[in-house]
Amino acid sequence: MDKFEAGTGVGQDSVLEVHVELVDSQPEIWRQIELRGSLALSQVHQVLQAAFGWEDAHTCISL
User: Fold this and answer.
1) I need a labelling partner for 5 at 20 to 30 A (CA). Which of 14, 41, 46, 59 fits?
2) d(CA 6, CA 52)
3) What is the helix (H) or strand (E) element at residue 52, kind and residue range?
């Protein structure tokens, strides 16, 4: 049995199944991914970038 972090209910060895979807996209754009409970937020950011095929760049669109 893995040890739980205080107040989170998620242990270091836990695997989290996460559904991520983009707001207001037509058609719907979403990913179902599994994350280790021990990942730092910066690592989750990298996983999301890879899952959506993004390159960590911001684009301005002028209308």
Assistant:
1) 46
2) 32
3) helix 41-52
Separation between Cα atoms, residue 56 and residue 52, nearest integer Å: 11
13 vs 39, residue with greater confidence: 39
C-alpha dist (Å) from residue 9 to 2, 28, 39, 60, 62: 11, 31, 15, 40, 45
Nearest to 15 by CA among 39, 46, 47: 39
d(CA 2, CA 53): 33
Structure tokens at 54: 């993004």
β-partners of residue 24 are none
CA distance 63 to 54: 22
**For 1-19, how does the pLDDT look when each residue is reduced to its tens digit (9 = 90+)?**
455 554 556 666 899 999 9
> Which token pair is 43?
């690592």
